[in-house]
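Data's thin. Show one?
=====
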Amino acid sequence: MFKIELKVMPRKGILNPQSTAVKNGLKAMGYDNVDNLEMGKFMEFTIKAADRAEAEAYVEEMCKRLLANPVIEDYTYQIYQVEGE
């Protein structure tokens, strides 16, 4: 069994209104030192796979088909082997 930590972020140059809204909100609250704020998605899940290569293949396929939009998002992930249930 493998634990996956997946981070999906907007590509550079892609408009991210959620990031803009949060950054503006922070500035309105007096946090003027915040710059370059980017918001994305973080997912954590486990995969039952025979080995690390199979787990990575599953993650890649899931990202390309559903978890990330390859046109506007990039993703990175970490894979950790964990004890099975």
About this structure: The domain at 2-81 is CATH 3.30.1280.10 (Mth169; Chain: A ,).
